[in-house]
Amino acid sequence: MSQARNVAVIGLGSMGFGMAVSLARAGFTVAGADVNAEAAQRFAAHGRAAATPAAAASGAEIVVVVVVNAAQTRAALFGRDGAVEAMSPGAVVVSCATMSPKDAEALAFETEARGLLYLDAPISGGAARASEGALTVLASGGEAAFAKAQPALDAMAKTLYRLGDKPGVGAAFKMVNQLLAGVHIAAACEAVAFAKRLGLDLARVYEVITSAAGNSWMFENRVPHILEGDYAPRSAVDIFTKDLGIVMDMSRDNKFPTPIAGQAFQMFLMTAAAGMGRDDDASVARLYAEIAGLSLPPKRDAP
Amino acid sequence: MSQARNVAVIGLGSMGFGMAVSLARAGFTVAGADVNAEAAQRFAAHGRAAATPAAAASGAEIVVVVVVNAAQTRAALFGRDGAVEAMSPGAVVVSCATMSPKDAEALAFETEARGLLYLDAPISGGAARASEGALTVLASGGEAAFAKAQPALDAMAKTLYRLGDKPGVGAAFKMVNQLLAGVHIAAACEAVAFAKRLGLDLARVYEVITSAAGNSWMFENRVPHILEGDYAPRSAVDIFTKDLGIVMDMSRDNKFPTPIAGQAFQMFLMTAAAGMGRDDDASVARLYAEIAGLSLPPKRDAP
Fold first, then answer.
1. Which of A245, B84, B93, B176 is 20 to 30 A distant from B190 in Cα terms?
2. With an 8 Å Cβ cutoff, is B71 touching chain A?
3. DSSP secondary structure string, B76-95?
């Protein structure tokens, strides 16, 4: 496996940065690139900061692409100074952005046409787990792609699901998760604002619901942001206008109705339209509060 | 506390029956009544089967009313042969049905006007926990009502939340929980049917989601019913047309929009309209499957 010791990470946002650091800690030689030169420079303490995806991918057997969506993944791989032009036959692209199965299949097809391997590998777990090498990876792809990517997956993930032998399956699982996650965030925000309208003590609501049948992973995780008035983006509203937007596209493409997700999508859009797109996704609760003239715990200033 | 050893339970459905059995096991002398004479007769092995709420409540210091809604609670208390006419001053009504805070306040007002005590005490936990004396009770009411009801609460509940000193607060907490529970069931059904449309292995979807951020208490609890094709009603679709219907009423009364709950409410209504109102609430998934021509695991026959 010595030839797999060189890894590139394209995209050094909070997730990609943590993953790159986990790879470096596991002994890989890591090169990182980001469209934001400042993010790349911050990475210089952990590995080689490259100016372009191609420069990062040069000499790497594993190229982890952890950007926001399919379009950015396409640009990172096939755009000007894209990674594929610098990759050698048999190297693997590990694609982590959330996207539709259709986009994952198309990117895999084009990557494989260049003699490269492709692993559809969306991730779950947040920035903290990324930096601990404790992500969950929802992966699908061929045997060779898994074999080539395995050492890097071991360094980045606590749980690796092998969900199928074709790219697109991992993406589909991720989108089912995002449908639920988005609905649960919007529902948590609706319920907490409703509770405030009823005059209930919100700390008590949190205590009761988290030990009752109305609980969700997202309720438990996001409602403290509301209670603390802390809307610094751990994950922004715009992430869910994007992800539930993909669910809407898939809904239409597959002629399958998703009315609950559709309503949640509209709530994220309203929150973004009201100017909170870059704030934490728990800001949907602030939208309800603004509409109804409620006083939630006040927004804290950024430190 | 010897005068509190006589308890009446009005409503011997799966919840009330379990609670009455828990009270008998704890040493109370229990009288039970139900509009369904057969349910009352089944209870005769555990206590006194009474023909009417008044006959059950005669001599009881604690009267637990565990029927479906506010209207049935009103009938059990104030209708013909209702419980209050047989209760002595200072006895307590423990009202467990899910209802709006407004209804809980009105019932408390009328009960207290008869020189009786009233505890607003909606419950959570299902029939199995009811029979184990392990319910969660979301209670509010005056000090005297809590003191009088305490021995029975100890026998029925594992967790007792004292949420306020006025009836209506317990009901409000319960409705916030039901809003979330209803949305989460509908979302779970939408997500599982969507996953089926995408061709995913549903057992794998259950495994992945229950260990990911898309999880909810309801997803974890209800999706196995879909996987097993088991729609025998643990909790029926009609319970959520009722409970989300109460949320809709409260929404309108409080001029507070609840679009996510509203969409979930419509999905339960559609499922009931399609003839599945008395089936398990996971039947919302069958509605999606029928609409889209999907094959979920087939419905098992009732044993």
1. B176
2. no
3. HHHSTT-GGGGPPTT-EEEE
Strand partners, A275: none
Among A214, A259, A263, select the one facing B180 at the smallest CB separation: A214
| Domain boundaries along the sequence of chain A | 2-165, 171-292
Q: Exposure string (b/e) for A263-300, b if CB count within 10 Å is 16 or more?
A: bbbbbbbbbbeeebbebbbbbbbbbbbeeeebebbeee
* Architecture, CATH, for domain A2-165: 3-Layer(aba) Sandwich (3.40)
For residue A66, the number of C-alpha atoms closer than 13 Å in the C-beta half-sphere is: 28
Q: Provide the β-strand partners of residue B124.
A: B136
pLDDT the model gives residue A164: 97
The pLDDT value given to residue B1: 42
Q: What is the mean pLDDT of chain A?
A: 96
**Given a cut of 60, is residue A201 above it in pLDDT?**
yes
Q: What is the phi/psi pair of residue B178, to 5°?
A: -70, -35
Which tokens go with A111? 């990557």
User: Residues A31, A56: contact at Cβ < 8 Å?
Assistant: yes
Work out whether the CA dihedral B94, B96, B100, B101 comes out positive or negative: positive
Q: Which residues of B touch A196 (CB under 8 A)?
A: none
The ipTM is: 0.95
CATH superfamily of A171-292: N-(1-d-carboxylethyl)-l-norvaline Dehydrogenase; domain 2 (1.10.1040.10)
Kindly state whether A29 is in contact with chain B, defined as any CB-CB distance less than 8 angstroms.
no
Domain B2-166 part of CATH 3.40.50.720: yes
Report, as ranges of residue numbers, the positions in chain B whose pLDDT lies below 50: 1-3
B214·A177 Cβ contact <8 A: yes
| B173–A214 C-beta distance less than 8 A | no
In this complex, the residue of B183, B208, B221 whose CB is nearest that of residue A187 is B183
This prediction has a pTM of 0.95
| Distance between CA atoms of residues A65 and A80, nearest Å | 15
Nearest residue in chain B measured CA to CA from A256 = B292
| Yes or no, beta carbons of A176 and B191 under 8 Å apart | yes
The confidence band for A3, taking pLDDT boundaries of 50, 70 and 90, is very low
Nearest CA distance, B212 vs chain A (angstrom): 7
| Percentage of chain A lying above the pLDDT 70 cut | 98
Q: Does B137 touch chain A (CB under 8 A)?
A: no
Nearest Cβ partner for B195 among A176, A181, A219:
A176
DSSP one-letter string for A91-142: -EEEE-S---HHHHHHHHHHHHTTT-EEEE--EESHHHHHHTT-EEEEEB--
